[in-house]
Each structure stands twice: as C-alpha cells, then as structure tokens.
Design goal:
The chain contains eight helices and seven strands, in the order ααβαβαββαβααβαβ. By secondary structure, it is of the alpha/beta class. It has one domain: Vaccinia Virus protein VP39 (Rossmann fold, 3-Layer(aba) Sandwich), CATH 3.40.50.150. A seven-stranded mixed β-sheet has the order 3-2-1-4-5-7-6, with helices on both faces.
C-alpha cells in the first residue's frame, strides 16, 4: 500500500506530537536519549532494551562506514542519543535535524553536557526540504523517521542531493511484512493513527531509491531482530511492573484506545526494513 492510499503525516503536527512526548518523558522520569526500537543480534540474546537500542545505532555505524573525517546527517534525530553515540564511537561530526523544536533544544543541551557541542549540532528542520547545500554530507542516517514523512520519494531525493558521491544512506522503516488484507491488524492501525505514521510498501523501495539517484547496497528484513523483540521486551517489563525508559505507555495516553507497544506484540505483519544505499 503506497503513501497516497494512507492518511499522510503533516510535519507540523508530527513536530508537536514529539514536543509533547519529549516533555512528558522528562516530566515523569521515563526520558531516554534513544527514541527508537532495539536490535538483538540473536533470538537468545540477553541484552536489555536499552542495550539493544544502542546496538541498533552501532549497526547503523557499521553500515555507514564513517570515521573521524566524516560529516553525518541524522535525519529525524530525536533528542540526539544516536547522533551523540556516532560522535563517541567514530569521532565523526554529526548534524541532526528534527521537526520537533523541543527535541532539538534537548539534543543541544545533551551535546553541551557531553562536551561535544562542537561536533554534534542539532537544528530544527523539515526533511522534505533539507536546509543544506548539495554534497554536504558523507553519510545520512534515519532511524525510524521515514514513517513520519508525507512523501518518502521526495525525502530520498533530498538525501541524494546532500550526499557526496560515494556517500551512504542507512535507514530503518516500517512496512507491511505480509501482503495487505482488507482489514489491517488493529495494533498497526493504532500505531499509524497515534504516531502519525505510514507503512511502506517493500516493493516500492528499490524503485524509489533508483529514481532518487541512489544505488541499493542492502535491503534487509530485520523484523526478527527489531520490532518483534522490542514489543516482547516492553510487554514483559510491563508485566513485571517495571517502567522502562523507552516508549512508556504514559507517553501515548492520549485516549482510552491509544496506541501502546503491547498492541504490536507478536504482530508479524508489522515489519522493519534496514536499508543501505549509496550515491554513485
């Protein structure tokens, strides 16, 4: 199902949503510098959800192939956790953008507190019209931000424009893993509605990348390593009465039928793609 057949996110509304989520998390003690799913290397991994979140950033680093001479764009940077980890692990410079002004304020505070404000800069911006010159970045990373974009194709074209030749894009995106039926799983419907997201069509990804001038390096279904165990871990922690510093239900409590991570527990049709592409 393409974006045109879904209710498309509105960037300003997405920004306000994440303003609210960020402020709620800081207020109720559930704040985490990672605002994304985890990555478990194997089904028997005993990594905590916080460790798995860091591991996903490390997977991105491996695929981006950056070093201290690189400049990385973090597209939909959240509150800066992944970008700061890239700086720490590789020495690269990172510029992050988010449509949420509160996320940007928080990310810049965290960069200053970590003593890396000179190498990690976060600014308010719209991925649909990136505020950067052509060939500005050696790599672009996008952890779960494409689902909030009203036009994936336009964002990919912008990414291609700001990448240097040989530069890499690495992203995760959610997709309908099982061919769509007339009625979609209610957990996916809640996710799309409450988090202002759309599901990608996996068959569209390679053509979109090609039309944007990007060459595919890898397109992997990482559902078994990401979305499925993330939901499973959050449900287990909730059952134990713990409040993990990630995707806590209070942050989504907009209505009685609001999305909760437990809604996606065991939903194999809620897929996650890991995409790596390169500008020739």
């Amino acid at each position: 199902m393409t974006d045109s057949a879904q209710t498309l996110p509105v960037p300003g509304a997405v920004g306000k949503l994440y303003d609210e989520l960020t402020l709620n998390a800081m207020k109720d003690g559930t704040f985490n510098t990672n605002v994304h799913i985890g990555y478990w290397d194997s089904p028997d991994s005993d990594a905590s959800i916080e460790e798995a979140m860091d591991r996903l950033t490390d997977v991105f680093i491996e695929h981006m192939q950056v070093d201290k001479g690189s400049h990385v764009l973090d597209l939909g940077c959240g509150v800066g956790g992944p970008g700061l980890r890239v700086v720490e692990r590789t020495g690269a410079r990172v510029t992050g953008i988010s449509i949420s002004e509160e996320q940007i304020r928080t990310a810049n505070r965290l960069a200053a507190a970590a003593g890396v404000a000179g190498r990690a800069v976060f600014r308010h911006g719209d991925a649909m019209e990136l505020p950067f010159p052509d060939a500005s970045f050696d790599a672009v990373m996008a952890l779960e931000s494409f689902c909030h974009m009203p036009d994936r194709q336009q964002v990919l074209q912008e990414v291609s424009r700001v990448l240097v030749p040989g530069g890499r894009l690495v992203l995760t995106d959610v997709f309908d893993r099982i061919p769509r039926t007339e009625v979609r799983h209610p957990g996916i419907e809640k996710f799309c509605r409450d988090l202002m997201s759309t599901m990608a069509d996996v068959d569209d990804y390679v053509p979109m990348l090609h039309r944007s001038g990007l060459r595919v390096r890898a397109l992997l279904d990482v559902t078994e390593q990401t979305t499925l165990p993330t939901a499973r871990h959050l449900v287990r922690l909730a059952d134990l009465g713990e409040r993990p510093e990630a995707m806590v239900e209070s942050n989504f409590a907009f209505a009685d039928d609001a999305f909760h991570p437990a809604d996606l527990a065991g939903v194999e049709s809620f897929g996650c793609l890991l995409v790596t592409a390169e500008r020739p």
